[in-house]
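>> received
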Amino acid sequence: MTADRGGASSASGDVPTRGGPLAHPSFRWLLAARTTGILGNAVAPIALAFAVLDLTGSAADLGLVVAARSVANVAVLLFGGVIADRLPRDVVLVGASLAAAATQAVVAALVITGTATIPTLVVMSVLNGAVAAVSLPAAAALVPETVPADLLRPANALLRLGLNGGSIVGASAGAGLVAVIGPGWGLAVDAAGFALAGALYTRLRLPRRPRAAPEAGRSPSVLGDLRDGWQEFTRRSWVWIVVAQFAVLNAAFVGATTVLGPVVADDSFGRGAWGLLIAAQTGGLALGALIALRWRPRRGLAVGVGLMAVTAVPVATLGLAPQLPALIAAFALGGVALEIFAITWDQSLQSRIPREALARVYSYDMVGSFVAIPLGEVLVGPAAHVFGTPSTLVACAVVIVAASAAALAAPSVRRLTLDDTGGR
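>> returned
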C-alpha cells in the first residue's frame, strides 16, 4: 500500500526546489529555532548529572532523577502525537518551548540557591519530560510542511547539522561552565535557550492543515486518533522492528553513558573532560550528516540499522579503556553511525507515512524507542555496585550489538530501499 504523502510538493508554497531547503523561509526559521533550543539544552544533561553528584554523590540517585524524566516522557508521548496532529504544529512548539524554559529555570534556581533536593529534582524532571513529549512529535512531523518532498533528505541533514553544531558548542561550553561556575548556571543557560527558541518558532508561517472528517459513525476522539496512528505504525513491519531494536539499544546506551559515564569521568579523566566526549560524539554526528548528504545507499535502512552496532564502541571503551584519546575517537565514531541511521530513518518515515498521521506514528516510534530507557537508567547503577562499573559497561555494549544484529536479520529491514515508497 502506497502512503499518501499529502501534497508535500506544495507544503511551502511556490518557492522553487532548486534553491535547496534554505530557499524556504519556514524551513530557515525551523532550523534557527531547533538549533537555538539544542544549544542551551546540550548543557542540561551535563549540569544536571553533576548537580546530583554534588548533592549526594550517588549513581543510583542520578539514575532516579534522569529516569523520572524518561518515564514522564514516555507516558505523555502518545498524547503529544495526537496534539501535534490536531493542532498547528508551530503553535504547539511555541507553547512547549516556553513551558520547558519555565521548568528549567526553576531547576536552575533550586540548584543555584542550594535548595535542591532529590525529590524536588525528580518532580521537575517529570514536568520537563512531559513538556518534551509534546514537542518531540511536533518537531519531527513539521519538516514536510516546510519543504517539498524531494528536499526531505537534505532538509533533515541540515537540521541535524544545526542540532549537532549547537550540541558541540553547548556541551563544550557547558562542561566548562559547570566546572568553573557550577551546574546551576548551566541549567539557567538551558532555560534561556528554550525561551529564545519559542520566540523563533513564532516566525514560522505555515498553511493550516484541514483536519480530516471522521468516518461515519465515529467521533473524533483521542482514543480514535491513537487507534488510527497505531494502525499506521503496525502495518509496516520495518517500522516496528527498528523501534523494537531501539527499545533495547537505548536502554543499554543511555543507561551506560548518562548514569555510568559521569561516574567514570569523576573516577578517571575528570568531569571537565566529560563535555569533550559529548562534543566528540556530536562532532561525529555532524560528520555523519555531511556523509548522508552525499552518500545515499539504495538499501539505506539496512545500512543504518547495521551501523548502530558501532554505538557499542564508546560504551565498551568506557569500561575497558577509559583514557581520553581513545574515548574521544570512540564517541566520534559512534556519532557518525548514529547520524547516518537517523537521517535515513526520518526520510523513510516522512516519505511513507500519511502527513495527517505522521506525528502520531513518530510518537509511537518514540514511545517504543524510549520505553525501556528508565529501566536501563535505574538498573545500571545498582548493577555497577554489584558487578563493577567496567563489567556493567561491557555487558551494555554486548546488548547493543545483539539488538542491532537481530533487527538486521529481518527481511523487511534489509530489503527496504530509499526509492521505494511502498508502505510495507
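>> The radius of gyration is 21 Å.
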